[in-house]
Amino acid sequence: MAAPNPIQMQKFLSGVDYPCTRDKLVDHAQSQGAPDDVLDHLRKLPDREYDGPNAVSAEFSRS
């Protein structure tokens, strides 16, 4: 299965407050109705604090 693209992922992170941890990103995306493939990919991100959407997208693309 192909990874979801960062644009799709960012749609579900709209409105999240940065800086934000990986777990909070997952929780927010889940509350926004993100599909399982997006949630699974977010869960694979390194467990650290992200300072904005560009940092999340960069890691999301590497995973």
Q: Overall pLDDT, averaged? A: 92
**Biggest β-sheet: strands ordered side by side in the sheet:** 1-2
Q: If helices are DSSP runs of H or I spanning 4 or more residues, what is the number of helices?
A: 4
State the major sheet.
Answer: 2 strands, antiparallel
Structural class: mainly alpha
Return the string of H and E elements. HEHHEH
Structural Rg = 10 Å
Shape: globular
Share of helix, binned:
55-70%
Low-confidence stretches: none
Q: How much of the polypeptide forms β-strand, as a percent range?
A: 5-15%
Report how far the terminal alpha carbons are from each other: 13 Å
- Count of extended strands: 2
Protein name: DUF2795 domain-containing protein
Pfam family, one: DUF2795
Organism: Amycolatopsis tucumanensis
Overview of the molecule:
The chain is mainly alpha-helical and 63 residues long. The chain has 4 helices and 2 strands, in the order H-E-H-H-E-H. The chain has helices at residues 6-12, 22-31, 36-43, 53-62, and strands at residues 20-21, 49-50. The protein has a two-stranded antiparallel ribbon with strand order 1-2. Helix 2 (22-31) packs antiparallel against helix 3 (36-43). The longest helix is centred in the middle third of the chain and has 10 residues, at 22-31. The chain is globular. The two termini are 13 Å apart. The model has no long low-confidence stretch (mean pLDDT 92).
